[in-house]
Write a structure and sequence with these properties.
The protein is mainly alpha-helical. The chain is built from 21 helices and no strands.
Length: 508
């Protein structure tokens, strides 16, 4: 059943891509589906783009290992989409064309801003893509290892499909894949939640009692502390996730696929509803059910006593525990579709940054036709696919949700301050924006490298130089402060022009 469902998803999505390619004849078609996506449809596509491997696999793994602290990951979307709905959607739709960079360039000098935004988008997307590839590789290896499909081969399969979706079908194909994935995930987690509760005669108290017993005497299933984070670290993680989501380029570009501001707001609302529903089920039922039925169950342990495939696979094992081989195949296929949809969106955002923001708007201003721009976009997709595959192989054992939090720290420290200050602060200048963006990006990356996840877990050192696992609180604060300080000190002619052009934001 698992092989059959995987085959159906692969063949079906490639078929959609071929159909979509016939509707992709211009740059507007390729990058934003020529604004032909409806508000509700786009909302499901945003939900499909957002709910990554971390949602079902990574967050369940955190509940499985650390318990209640996973609420930090689940609460962030509420804040992020609230920011999008109330502060971003109108200006995004009114001023953007292909990417969030268009909004910033409407009032600041274009060339340096596009180079900076492309750099931050690629940094964010490559790390986020790596997380999805790690999840896909582990998933396929667990299910089809007996058929000779190793982690390495699984990574190659997923990255190849990712390149096909984007290079051939563009935004139309990506949107359809994301909508189908969102519907499959909503249905899959609903059935998984119901079957899990059915094992306890639909008694929450019975399920929680068994889970608490399996989790141990520390009580972390129902109280904080399981991740071992200080209050400052927990706040830093929450800041990174919330502001990072609000500054995620692959989510922001989806607001350019609808026709007007009202449709953009509907999109954000529908997405928030779908995401909240899935998060509630994962936190209160699926994660707890995994602790109750999978933790300590010898059927899902390897010879060393560890979970087969690692903690990222506990939701898949839960599907087997409550529904047998058939349902395991269904949930695994849903998780696989989840990964395919997210990697397609991230890849398209990366390609847009290279082909539109850098090449078309910086390198060859006014000298490139749309056919050539689309061709270069496809070549960029192939190039990025190779890089992502190598990263996925190098970071095979990292927790998916943690990798995602690092990507979010980059978006929170660069894209989010750039957008918010360009939209709402008349004093922002090009020099301040570029300096602050660079400071935010470098600070986030350096602190991640010096922190425990890389300095200790990857490089093998005894202790980290930077003790905090999550750097967003520091890097976001420093980025905002730098943009403010450099801007108020900037007395150049360009700064004067930047401040005068804020009128374009006030008019919306």
């Amino acid at each position: 059943m698992g092989i059959f469902l995987f085959f159906v998803i692969i063949v079906g999505t490639i078929g959609l891509t071929i159909v979509a390619s016939r509707r992709t004849s211009s740059a507007a078609d390729f990058f934003v589906a020529n604004e032909k996506i409806g508000g509700v449809s786009n909302g499901f596509a945003i939900a499909g783009d957002f709910m990554s491997a971390a949602t079902l696999l990574g967050i369940t793994a955190i509940i499985f290992g650390a318990g209640y602290d996973a609420v930090i990951y689940l609460g962030a979307p509420l804040g992020a989409f609230s920011i999008m709905i109330y502060l971003m959607t109108d200006k995004l739709k009114a001023l953007g064309k292909y990417s969030f960079t268009d909004i910033i360039c409407s009032r600041l000098k274009e060339k340096p801003i596009r180079i900076l935004a492309a750099t931050t988008t690629l940094s964010f997307s490559l790390i986020y893509l790596m997380a999805q590839i790690v999840g896909a590789g582990a998933l396929i290896e667990v299910l089809f290892g007996d058929f000779g499909i190793s982690y390495l081969r699984a990574v190659i399969i997923v990255t190849t499909l990712m390149v096909i979706y984007v290079a051939i079908g563009g935004m139309f194909a990506t949107t359809w894949v994301q909508i189908i994935k969102a519907i499959l995930l909503l249905a899959g987690v609903t059935v998984l939640g119901l079957l899990t509760l059915a094992n306890f005669d639909f008694s929450f108290s019975a399920m929680y009692a068994q889970a608490q017993g399996n989790h141990g005497p520390d009580g972390f299933l129902t109280r904080g502390g399981g991740l071992g984070l200080s209050t400052l670290s927990a706040v830093s993680l929450g800041v990174g996730l919330c502001f990072g989501l609000a500054g995620s380029p692959h989510l922001l570009m989806r607001f350019f696929t609808v026709k007007d501001k009202a449709a953009a707001r509907v999109s954000a609302g529908v997405a928030l509803g779908a995401i909240s529903y899935v998060n509630v089920l994962v936190f209160f039922v699926i994660g707890v059910g995994a602790v109750a039925l999978v933790k300590g169950n010898s059927a899902y342990l390897d010879a060393s006593g560890s979970i087969i495939g690692g903690n990222n696979m506990v939701s898949v094992h839960l599907a087997h525990a409550v529904g047998g081989e058939v349902f395991l195949g269904i949930i695994a296929a849903v998780a696989f579709a989840t990964i395919l949809a997210v990697v397609a969106g991230l890849m398209l955002a990366s390609v847009t940054a290279l082909a539109h923001d850098v090449y078309a708007k910086v390198v060859r201003v006014g000298e490139i036709d749309q056919a050539r721009q689309i061709k270069l976009s496809k070549l960029a997709a192939v190039f990025l696919g190779i890089i992502v595959a190598l990263l996925g192989i190098a970071f095979e054992k990292q927790n998916i949700a943690y990798i995602v939090s690092l990507a979010m720290a980059i978006a929170a420290s660069t894209n989010f301050p750039l957008l918010m200050l360009s939209m709402y602060w008349p004093g922002l200048t090009t020099r301040g924006a570029v300096t602050g963006g660079i400071v935010g990006l470098v600070t986030a990356i350096v602190l991640v490298v010096l922190g425990p996840a890389v300095w200790v877990d990857v490089f093998g050192n005894d202790r980290p130089i930077f003790p905090q696992a999550y750097p967003a609180l520091y890097s976001v604060t420093l980025a905002f402060f730098t943009m403010w300080l450099v801007s108020i000190l900037d007395r150049s002619e360009q700064a004067k022009e930047d401040r005068e052009k804020f009128q374009v934001m006030k008019a919306i």
